[in-house]
Amino acid sequence: MTATQATTGEALLDILCPLHVVISKTGHITHAGPTMKKVVGADRIEGRRFLEVFELKRPKLSPNTADLLKAQGQRLHLTLRTASQVDMKGVLVALPDDGAIKEAGGAIVNLSFGISVIDAVRDFELSSADFAITDLTVELLYLVEAKSAAMEASRKLNARLQGAKIAAEERAFTDTLTGLCNRRVLEPVVERLIDIEEDFALMQLDLDYFKSVNDTLGHAAGDHVLQEVAAILREETRSTDTIIRAGGDEFVLIFAPIARTDDIAQIGARLIERLEDPILFNGQVCRISGSIGTTLSRDYDSPALDRLMEDADLALYEAKSAGRGCQMAFTPDMRQRAESETDRAIVPMVRPATRQDDSTALMSEAKERLVPSGSDRYR
Questions:
Q1: Residue 31: how many other CB atoms lie within 10 Å
Q2: Beta bridge mates, 181
């Protein structure tokens, strides 16, 4: 076999097995495929001993060339002795003694990356051109690339859907005029604080004289005032507090956590003071104030939202009765007074009958009171 023929044989191997190496009977690498040169380095592989470049993991053999050459046809498990230490698989085929491929008495070891191919492609910047055309690795790389593209598209779609979901939830729980939370937020926030046994204050705030602004300057002025009020509430509260627009000119503020009761009174005083500052709208001055009623969760053995709201409302009623532009903290006597006023407001609808002869007349009177003249109710 001439040198030219041997060279042609190596060229064929380079095309068919770009990850092969040819070793001599002394164990030195005399030729390496183009991809193997790219992985190890063209100037760092040929001329070196095979077992200096690769560590043989299995089968367990003595670290010498004679035993290595006896492993013909067996599956070899190797690790590249490089910084990346990539695992490889290979098979060794002994060369004939006639020197058909340069090294009489040597061997060819054809190698592959196996399941480490993804790491190898990344670490050594390999492409499909670095593998034999018939190598399934090429198809695998295409599949991996397609999967990566599909996963990226899925990730982007999920991100868009999640963003749309968050935006929809925010819209559902946000007051569109002021940007504050709406009434839907009240129950989950309070229930969560109750569940984790966090002390909090619930404050009801009503704007005083707001109806006058709407009546004299119009709803546009009223909307502007509400937006200015929302800005004041944000500035005077913390990021951990919750501000809710519960109705037209009604707000509920949840302060959590709270350390001292006096802190809530100070916040309420600041809010009223700032609300009484004139608000300009189209050159017109809008003047409002605020009445506040507050209750504390720590004052209840088992705090519940309905009871907290009722008691804060009673305190708010007391504040308005005191002349507006002030705040009241709930006390139990407020509920007692409210119940007494309710009892006094109940007026008997029918006078007690004093004579048997009056009973018919009294029943007629009662009917007239229950069913106004001209009504067809109960008919």
A1: 24
A2: 174, 244
CB atoms within 10 A of CB 131: 21
User: Is residue 233 within 8 Å of 253, Cβ to Cβ?
Assistant: yes
User: With contact defined as beta carbons under 8 Å apart, do 30 and 106 qualify?
Assistant: yes
Task: Tell me the angle at which helices 219-235 and 210-217 cross, rounded to the nearest 10 degrees.
Answer: 140
Q: Is the pTM of this model over 0.85?
A: no
* Cα 305 from Cα 309, distance rounded (Å): 6
| Encoded amino acid at 328, one letter | M
Q: What is the 3-state secondary structure (H, E, C) of 274-341?
A: HHCCCEEECCEEECCEEEEEEEEHHHCCCCCHHHHHHHHHHHHHHHHHCCCCCEEECCHHHHHHHHHH
* Measured distance CA(108)–CA(71) in Å, rounded: 12
314, 334 contact by CB (below 8 A): yes
Would you please indicate which residues are annotated as catalytic (active-site) residues? Answer: 249
Angle at 210 between CA 208 and CA 212, to 5 degrees: 110
| 20-78: pLDDT as tens digits | 999 998 899 999 999 999 999 888 889 999 999 999 998 988 888 888 888 888 999 99
Beta-carbon neighbour count of residue 15 at 10 Å?
11
